[in-house]
Request: fold
Amino acid sequence: MDSVRQARYFVEAAAKVLDVLESFASAEEFLTITEVARRANLTYSSAFRLLYTLERRGYVMRRPGKKKYTLSPARKRFRIGYAALNATTFHREVSASLLTAAQRLGLTLIVRANQEFNISKALVNADQLIAERVSLLIEYQYSEVASDLIAAKCHGAGIPIIGINFALPGAYYFGGNNYQTGALAGGFLANYANRHWNGRVDTCLVLLPKGLTSTQETRKLGLTEALLKGLPSLRRSEIEIAPKALTIAQGNRLTLERLKRLGASKRILIAALTDHLGLGAEKAIRSAGAADRAVVVGQGGGKDARTRIRTGGPFKASVAFFSESYGESILQLAIRILDGDRAPLTSYTNHVVLTRENLNEYYPDERIHPIRRT
Reply:
C-alpha cells in the first residue's frame, strides 16, 4: 500500500530529466544525443528535446562546432540578463567585454539591445528578461524614468540589478566615479592652460551629454571645482554650460557657435563629458582654424578617442574608463551577489587621463597596430 501511495507522487517527466543528467559519468565527459538516449533508456527524439531544454536553462552545454554535450559548470546555471547599449564605440567595447567574460566564466548571458532614450524599448527588454527568469539583470541605459520603472519591476520579481555607469534605485552600481572623472578633466585643462598659456584663459565650454541628470551634475561639479582651483584667474561666470547634446555632429555645432561668438584671438578650454561630444568639438576647432587657441578633453577613453589623441591636435586627452575591462569586473560582482556573498553596492572602474605621452603605457598593442583615422 505504501509503495502504491509513493508511486502516485512520482513525477515521470522529472525522472527523465534526471536520467539525462545522470547519464554523464563526470563533468568532463562529452556525449552525443544517441549516447545519452542509450544510457538514459530514451528515444532519440526525447533525448534531443530534453537536452535542448537543459541547454537553454544552462544545465548542459555543447562543445563548440560539435553535436556533443557536457554538464555545465555550476555557475553556468546563473542566467544573467544584459540590456545593452551599442550606439558608440564605448558601448560596444563594454558589450564585447561582457560576452568574452561570460564565456570564460561559464555564465549564460541573455542579451537584449536597448536604444538611447527609448523608454518603451528599455521597458520591453526588462519585461522579456524577467520573463526569461534571469537570475540577475545588468542594465545599461540613460533614462531616469526608465530606471525607476525597471528597478520597480525587478524588485517585484526578486531580481537583483547592476547598473552600468548610471545608477538605478536600489541597484548595485558599476562604472565611473563621476566626481573624480570630472575633477581629472578639470585638472588636465587647468594644467594645460598653466603650462602653455600662462594660465590665461578666456572661457571654458562644458559640453554636457543627455542622460541621467544626477550623473552629469556630479561630473560637472568635479570639473568646475578642479578648474577654479587650478586656474585662480578663471571666474565661475567664464565657465559656460552648453545645451545638452549627444552626437559628434551636435558637439561640432555647439562648439562652432561658441567659437564664432568668442572671436579670433580668444583662448578656450573645452570639457566634453563624453568622447563623442569631444570629437565633434575637435572637428569644429579644425574647421574654424582655432587649433592654436583651443584644447579639448573628453571622457570615456574609447578607441575612437585614443585614435584622435595619437594623431595629435586639439583633442589632447580623455579620462579613461577602461571599457574593455568592464565585463570581467561586472560578472565577478554578479557572481558574488548570486553566491550570496556580501558585495559592495558601488564599485568603480579605474580612471586615468590618457594623453599622447602615456597611451603606449596603457594600450601598447595599438602602438604596433595603430587604428586608422576615420
About this structure: The longest strand covers residues 294-300.
